[in-house]
Amino acid sequence: MKYVRTSPRKMRRVIDMIRGQHVIEARRILRFSPLGPTPDVEKLLSSAIANAEQQPGVIADNLMVSGAWVDEGPTLRRYRPRAYGRATRVRKRTSHVTLVVATMGEET
What we know:
Helix 2 (23-31) runs antiparallel to helix 3. Helices cover 33% and strands 29% of the residues. It has helices spanning 8-18, 23-31, 38-53, and strands spanning 63-72, 76-81, 87-92, 95-103. The protein is of the alpha+beta class and 108 residues long. The protein is elongated.
């Protein structure tokens, strides 16, 4: 998933919780986590599972999150007015999230 409007630092906290987990356990963790980026990661996990099920012989119950990482995307620069006619830069950070699911036997 690219260009997610969440800072990479916040997104990494969520990704670190599900890396190496079984997909059912990862969904449970994401569903009950109070962290902000969890809906985006949950949507990404569902998409990865659906994509993996398209391969012949792959069953969703046998999948695990074998790899997950977050890279920094482009930063949107905005300006806010401040006192005495000055302006300060506001950096709106974006993330590129990669999630790899594999069957229990194989590791990537």
